[in-house]
Write a structure and sequence with these properties.
alpha/beta; Rossmann fold; Arc Repressor Mutant, subunit A; 2 domains; six-stranded parallel β-sheet; 10 helices; 53% helix
């Protein structure tokens, strides 16, 4: 019996700069577990290509002609809820970060990030995890602090659940959360399920987005 070949991560690249797209295609094509299935030079084409090609992940720039990356993610997600997004951009201001997360980005990387971080993000997001590079994560946590000073949360999250949610926002895995808080990994999973229930969300990215909106994390 022949050994089954693992499926490759199917990636669509959306960026209005040809040189950037070419560089990404060349770089990603060298990885055995990643396949670039298409390119899009603007948000409108990205929407059409995503519908046609059904990629696992879309690498999305934010500032593009026709339709910007934020709106493109919203439309693609509405058409195919299973697709996942990684924002790859030069913009690190707060407004872009939070609009990107709210639109469904599971990872947010700047274009000057090391290629190893991009590979790591693609593999993590494909597995259902999130990854936000440290410089961006700092801004997310700063927003948590700002919102918590101005908004009283109606959600009855425990202090431990707040600690777990803060670590989730940093893209920390369940195993590392368990190590950091000196608790069992099964306990971490229980806390996460309680967080999902209290916030009425279905996954880690939605939990972080809802926490940003409601300001329920106290740092």
């Amino acid at each position: 019996m022949s050994e089954q070949v693992p499926a490759k991560v199917r990636v669509l690249i959306a960026d209005d700069h040809p040189v950037v797209r070419e560089g990404l295609v060349t770089m990603l094509s060298r990885e055995n577990d990643i396949e670039v299935v298409g390119e899009a030079q603007n948000g409108k084409v990205a929407i059409d290509k995503a519908r046609e090609l059904r990629p696992d992940i879309v690498l999305m720039d934010l500032r593009m002609p026709e339709v910007d990356g934020i709106e493109a993610m919203r439309r693609i997600k509405a058409d195919n809820p299973q697709v996942k997004f990684i924002v790859l951009t030069t913009y690190d201001n707060d407004e872009y970060i939070f609009k990107g997360i709210e639109a469904g980005a599971r990872a947010y990387l700047l274009k000057d990030a090391p290629r190893s971080e991009l590979f790591k993000a693609i593999r993590a997001v494909y597995k259902g995890e999130s990854l936000i590079e440290p410089a961006i994560a700092g801004k997310v946590l700063d927003r948590f602090a700002e919102l918590s000073r101005h908004t009283q949360s109606p959600e009855a999250l425990s202090e431990r659940e707040l600690e777990v949610l803060t670590l989730i926002a940093r893209g920390t895995s369940n195993k590392l959360i368990a190590t950091s808080l000196n608790i069992g990994e099964s306990t971490v999973k229980t806390h996460i399920q309680n967080i999902f229930h209290k916030l009425n969300v279905n996954d880690r990215t939605e939990a972080v987005t809802e926490a940003i909106k409601k300001g329920i994390v106290r740092l």
